[in-house]
Amino acid sequence: MSNVIRLTFPSRSEQRAASFAALLETFAHHRREDGDVFWLKENAEVLNILECTGQTVPEEALRTYDAFYAGIEDRLEFFPQYYRFLLSICLDLESLGLKGDKGAGLARWIANEGLIDSELSDLQRGEAARLLTRIGVSPGVDVTLINDRLSAFAARSATFTVPNKKAAYELTHIVFYLSEYGRRDPQLPPETIQSLKFAGILAFIDCNFDLLAEISVAMRYCGETPPAAWEEAVAIATASFTVAEGENAVRQDDYHDYLVCNWALSAAGQKPFAASLRPGPVSFHADRGQAAPLREMSEIMHGLTARRSSDWHLMRDYVCDNVSAESADILLQAEATTDCFEDFFAGFARTGMRGSSAGAISA
After folding, report:
1. Is 140 helix (H, G, I), strand (E, B) or coil?
2. Domain coordinates of the chain in residue numbers?
3. Of 10, 21, 65, 306, which one's alpha carbon is 20 to 30 angstroms from that of 116?
């Protein structure tokens, strides 16, 4: 009589636990030198996304940070310039389930040393204050003034009608900060929602899915639903990542795009980090094959000089006829899936010094 061999397969929860364990191990031990600034940045990002999306991470997976966590006080004392990374990592590890309560002590030391005063940026000061108050420590700064300045920047919608990636990323991080990463309704004015929409249109027609993912998350944190086409594009981009493992893994990769796209999936109610990873060196690579109409559109508009108009209906056919067919499809999709494309284009055209239609091309 032959033996019967019963095959067993891991459950979905076991698969996700293994995936999270592999993800954290590669970031903790196989991409950067332990504790350097790039290591701190990458690990702060991955842990923050896991924490703010409410992922269930097994404690065993978090134990990969045991050595780092054990010496975190010494690191903070010698590297106070990285205090935000260090405190963020500590708080997220504890929130995710790593046993320990060092966060409050680190926060008190940071507050007593006045490290927030070393920041030049309102956003960085605000983020530092948020980390301290998250653990119940007074930051010792007037966050009302900080918030007012950040809110004024975010509400200036005209800023986000022209390509400026730095400003757009600042906008998303202001919303993350003001919403406490989705923990509360930031109650932002319509002007700030308009800013997010304008920045999203630019990201969409630039096929910048890293930025588009951040904008989609920011909109969700404001209680807004991003256009379906944006979230579909992010989902397709997420599924298109390739993973290089072992000797094929490289240091310069698209890890940030990978993390943020998965963050956007989670914010939209989908399962993030579905890719099966093996422990060890890993790098993440986005599909860069898609044409993006932003540069073509900008060059066409700039070349028109005095004939340029801020009226999209006057310019629509001319622009679409003079970009590639693929780019025209993306532009028309952007127009069809947002309720403010005409207002966006009026700013994008940049005709403010001479009126909106002087010398315009007729339709």
Report:
1. coil
2. 11-140, 142-288, 294-348
3. 65
